[in-house]
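Re: that backbone. Tokens:
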């Protein structure tokens, strides 16, 4: 993907900035750099519409969006994305105690297996950060 060319599009540029602010530049740069002919359309779509449009809407702040993402991704049992968004939630100001509360809420409304996996993944992220 030609990132310089894509940055001519204001929505892509705005999305790239938001995506990096939440997920970190290293992760985002690696995701975009590793995009190939098969996956580059997905990277472009996510950057423009998920991060450029929805994440930049004025109705919710980044912190609230992180609360929502943790609960939804946990309920969907998407471990890779959950670990990524746990880090993003910390970047957006959520505390470990608040993350614990999200996963307890998930336990009640989505089931213990989803919450158990979410707690395990959060502990892995915390250990990586602390280690």
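Recovered sequence:
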């Amino acid at each position: 993907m030609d990132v310089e060319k894509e940055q001519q599009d204001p929505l892509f540029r705005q999305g790239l900035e938001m995506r990096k602010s939440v997920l970190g530049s290293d992760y985002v740069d690696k995701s975009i750099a590793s995009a190939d002919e098969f996956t580059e359309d997905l990277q472009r779509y996510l950057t423009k519409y998920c991060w450029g449009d929805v994440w930049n809407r004025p109705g919710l702040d980044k912190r609230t969006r992180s609360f929502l993402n943790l609960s939804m991704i946990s309920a969907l049992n998407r471990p890779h994305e959950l670990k990524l968004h746990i880090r993003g939630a910390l970047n957006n100001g959520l505390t470990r105690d608040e993350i614990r509360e999200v996963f307890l809420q998930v336990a009640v409304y989505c089931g213990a297996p989803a919450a158990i996996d979410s707690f395990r993944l959060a502990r892995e992220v915390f250990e990586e950060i602390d280690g």
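Helices lie at 3-6, 10-23, 25-33, 40-53, 62-76, 79-91, 96-110, 112-130. The radius of gyration is 15 Å.
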